[in-house]
Hints:
elongated, Ferritin
Amino acid sequence: MGTILTAAPRRPRPTVAIAAGWAAALVAVAVVGALGSDTSSTWYRELDRPSWQPPGAVFGPVWTTLYVLIAIAATLATRSAPARRRGLVVGLLAANLVLNVGWTWIFFRAHAPVAAGVEIVVLLATIVALIRVIAPHHRGAALLLVPYLAWVSFATVLTWTIAATN
């Protein structure tokens, strides 16, 4: 009788390696985003901005908190998604981070609030998609993205308000 050979189950990558990868990606997003921000430019200072826009000092702490939550959510989602869905999760996360950085450069460097408004709607859609794709595999990871969804929703309204008034 022949021996039945079965492949040993693939061991998942250690959580620390996954977390380090996502942390590095989010630090890169933060740095590239910060390099693209220019609130001291004449163009930005002359924009008609709504009175309800938060003061500049709010943005750093908010984004730092959101990036930490995104990194944790990405780690949990990547670790818990079944192999057949992991590529989708990673792809959506990567697209989301590119869009996240892109908004800053489109708005502040290209001086294009309407284009930034269109781009942020796509960014928002990727956050919704991420929550929907991640939730069946790790509800906690999906919930960690809700503050990001809320902030980007607010930023979408702010972006379109600035685009409409300028």
